[in-house]
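Histidine kinase (Dethiosulfatarculus sandiegensis), 253 aa
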Amino acid sequence: MAVDVDTEEDFLNALRLGSELFQGRFYVQPKLGAGHEMPAFRLNLMRLLVTVHNPVLDYQRLEKLVSSDVTLAYKLLRYINSPYFGVRTEVQSVRQAFSFLGEKALRNWISMVAMSASAQDKPDELVVLSLVRALFFSQTAEVAGLEYLKEEAFLAGLFSLLDAFFDKPMPEILEMIPVTREIKDALLHQSGILGALTSLTLAYEKGKWDEVGESLAKLGADKFELLPAYQRSLEQAHEMFELTADEKASNPA
């Protein structure tokens, strides 16, 4: 595995040396620049994220947006019918899926499906990392005794890479998507409880153990729970990704 792959030059050098696995910031950097326009398919998915995070959820409009996009509907139904949810009877329509999920879970899972669909021209590692973070945020909140924050923590982790998915600065994206103030503060300033989860995760990914300890102290979490939580998050994230990996491969950008 090649580590510290932070630039395109690092990536190309690692390829020349025969590396097949890579770790570093190269995958999560947004492609910012003058004249860079968001592709139409990604604009549509941004509209979906705006709709699903409106304070008053418009179920009819949301169902229409998801149902009109074959890829989105397919991804959602595959997720819902996966072992992760443990449904006894197969969910066969978007409307059924909406009924199965509560409002908070619906917002989270639609967000996940939309971001996965937006990654047509992105490395698979970006999608996997966003899922790992979402799950790790959520599981760390649970082990810290903050069960009431699990769903919001999941969304904060998922959205921590929005800039890399949409190639826009994070402040600009968060002006468009009406997420809670707590999530905005966490992603922009690493403040509040969700901010402590953000700091913890970023430090853990980089192996900055002093910073990990500081964040754990703020959260009141047990350091011995951290590795099992991260391992579970990795396993579940790869399982979720595999649900749509074959579909992504058959629908290139």
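The chain has two domains: 1-30, 31-249. Residues 226-249 form the longest helix (24 residues). ok done for today
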